[in-house]
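Wed. Picked up where I left off yesterday with Na+/glutamate symporter. The coffee machine is broken again, so keeping this brief.
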Amino acid sequence: MSGHGFHVHGPHDHELEHAASGSGHGDSHGHAEGGAASPSGGMSMTSKIAVCTAVIATVGAIFSYMGGATQANAGLYKNNAAIKKTEASNQWNYFQSKSTKQALAEFARDTAADDARRQDWQLKVARYDQEKTDIQAAAKKLEAEASQWDAQSEEQMHQHHRWAQATTVLQVSIALAAIALLTKKKWLERAMFGVAAGGLVVGVLAAFHI
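Structure written out below (tokens, as returned):
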């Protein structure tokens, strides 16, 4: 591979370089499957697999990055959901406090000795009731926001699993490529392309949140 001016970076560098360097010591006509060039002048099996491995490794690196990014997003969204839940809980505690004050005001109103004091307590009851309505609306809004953050976190985690699956499949494809280079088996080459195609399909599913 070094004779073509590029180097494949990945977990199977040693095998790829060994196979490529070994192919250069054959006869002047090359081998049918693994020489520097095929008899028809096209790309040899070794060169073709090496190029495909480089492409697969690059795509796998992108998938791995996306998997890490979505996992980080999932954690951030889950943290936002926890914050909103805490704020909602504080609002409900505040609501309970107002309910207690309203109950005491109603008791004082009902036991007041004159109409003036009874009217004064009634105003407080009405005020507490309005405050409870506002607090309840705020608490429900915070709960809705918490649910939205939770849903987004779950979506990001699902996408993270898809990216991780795609990355793993591509790594298997690279392993098959290394074995194909060492054994010069055509069926392993075909298996490598098939597995790589499967990894790309899973990556597309991840990109479209499927």
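Quick read: DSSP finds four helices and no strands in the chain.
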